[in-house]
Fold:
Amino acid sequence: MSTTSRFLASALAVGLAVSVGCSSSGGSKKSDPALGTRVLECVVVQHDHDSGGSGSSYRSGTGLYYMVFETHEGQATSTYRLEVTRQQFQRFQDGDRVRLTLNNNILVNIQPNND
Structure:
């Protein structure tokens, strides 16, 4: 067997061993609990509005609207600051109990929580 053939055989064996090792370690990853769809029962604690313009009257009413929500997850208290629509911003007041639906930590829906 020539030196070149031995080198290629060794490289092939190492490559095969590495690929088998990589494929077996892929199944041990734990998924992020924040990913996926979750429903949280929260309380509105704050409203924030970032105006998008230079302050001219032409741009009034635009910008980004945020609400801050507080919830209990297990024994921990979590706070979320999420972008909302202008209608949601005006509909829900501080202290309101709401049910949030999040998909990958992005707000999908807000409903009053009348429980």
Q: What stands out?
A: The chain has two helices and five strands. The chain has two domains: 1-30, 37-112.
